[in-house]
Amino acid sequence: MAQVDFKQLAAQYEKELRENCLPFWLKNSQDTEFGGYFSCLDRDGSVFDTDKFIWLQGREVWMFAMLYNKVEKNQEWLDCATHGAEFLKKYGHDGNYDFYFSVTREGKPIIQPYNIFSNTFACMAFAQMAQATGSEEEYKEIALKTFQRILDRRNDPKGRWEKSYPGTRPMKGFALPMIICNMALEVENIIEDKSLLDNTIDECLSEILNVFYQPDLGVMLENVAPDGTPVDCFEGRVINPGHDLEALWFMMNLGIRRNDSALIKKCVEIALSVINYGWDKEYGGIFYFLDRKGCPPQQLEWDQKLWWVHLESAICMLKGYQLTGSQECLEWFQKLHDYMWKNFKDHEYPEWYGYLNRRGEVLLPLKGGKWKGCFHVPRGLYQLWQILEECK
């Protein structure tokens, strides 16, 4: 294995974040007429659709507020975060702190608040804004009310917007406990009842490790029956390796918080199993979806290579090395690093591509859309920069 120059790599990720990624979003995403952010940005940053997706509004607020809190007190970053937070506060929710999926450019609701992840990212955003502004109690209040709505909805996330027929084939999803693991650390500073937070974390960790994780496969299932048993249908067989690896670095952070070396070691063991399972042995990169029985996946995009999958996996592998010294994790990070910089980085325009075909060729040249916004690339660059700094 080639010697890793952690100092050089840290500088590379920091430069990409500061000089390439963040300026792209600061310049192109802010809607100076109606507030909030454009996320549908073409390769050169031009806007190709003006609808606003609440996941991505919350994520961009969080991103710039977090960087303001943790990197430097850059007023341009705080102004950008405030720009989105005020739009989200005014137009993002239904008055009961359930956040819509999407709104028009002006802020009129388009899609109902059926998706609980709109709430989770709004909660994270307002928690960071509360910290960034210090004296802004309203942001803290919104974060707390939204957090409570997430807890209220946890067992029935879609509520009256659930389209499956009740009782026929009930299932629960891996994505929610995974996101709550991360969100718990985000809201820790504003939650007064620490026992509530600890109990929520305990429940989510137990769900992931004892319900969704399948030791015989070495991966998590995306959906299981309410009692935790696998279900033999399309939804019940689906595996998303990127989700697994993202969740596992969240859980490593929880292991750090709890000083739980056994949890960290378990996460690293599972992570190595997942990446070996999900890696495309023929073309490289990580598959988007797989079927636990090897059946044809339902998702037509199953073999695409996505930006967030590889960034989150790189964080997971590098963090695994940092915390345990695993050389296998470090080798995987190097492999992911080489793949990402070769295939996802646009060497002509700022920001990174999001969607590649199985062979690693660009499928869509866009830099933002309905699902890709100012989140996984800058967060990934930031996380990798910070971990590499600590590895120096």
State the helix count.
Answer: 13
CATH class of the largest domain: Mainly Alpha
The run of helices and strands is HEEEHHEEHHEHHEEEHEHHEEHHEEH
Beta-strand percentage range: 5-15%
Could you tell me the CATH topology label of the largest domain: Glycosyltransferase
What is the strand tally? 14
Shape label: globular
Average of the residue pLDDT scores: 96
**Main sheet: strands, sense, barrel:** 3 strands, antiparallel
Find the structural class using helix and strand composition: mainly alpha
For the record, the CATH architecture of the largest domain stands as: Alpha/alpha barrel
Low-confidence segments: none
**Helical percent range?**
40-55%
Task: Supply database-style keywords.
three-stranded antiparallel beta sheet, 2 domains, 392 residues, 8% strand, Glycosyltransferase, globular, mainly alpha
Topology:
Layout: H1 6-28, E1 40-41, E2 47-49, E3 52-53, H2 54-70, H3 75-91, E4 102-103, E5 109-111, H4 116-133, H5 137-153, E6 172-173, H6 175-187, H7 194-212, E7 213-214, E8 219-220, E9 223-224, H8 234-237, E10 238-239, H9 241-258, H10 261-278, E11 290-291, E12 305-306, H11 307-324, H12 327-343, E13 355-356, E14 362-364, H13 376-391
Antiparallel strand pairs: 1-2, 3-4, 4-5, 6-9, 7-8, 10-11, 12-13, 13-14
Helix pairs in contact: 1-13, 2-3, 2-4, 3-4, 4-5, 4-6, 6-7, 6-9, 9-10, 9-11, 10-11, 11-12, 11-13
Textual characterization of the structure:
The protein has 392 residues and is mainly alpha-helical. The protein has helices at residues 6-28, 54-70, 75-91, 116-133, 137-153, 175-187, 194-212, 234-237, 241-258, 261-278, 307-324, 327-343, 376-391, and strands at residues 40-41, 47-49, 52-53, 102-103, 109-111, 172-173, 213-214, 219-220, 223-224, 238-239, 290-291, 305-306, 355-356, 362-364. It folds into 2 domains: 11-162, Glycosyltransferase (Alpha/alpha barrel); 171-343, Glycosyltransferase (Alpha/alpha barrel), CATH 1.50.10.10. It is built from 13 helices and 14 strands. Strand 4 and strand 5 (109-111) form a beta hairpin. It is globular. The chain starts with 5 loop residues before the first helix and ends with a helix. The mean pLDDT is 96.
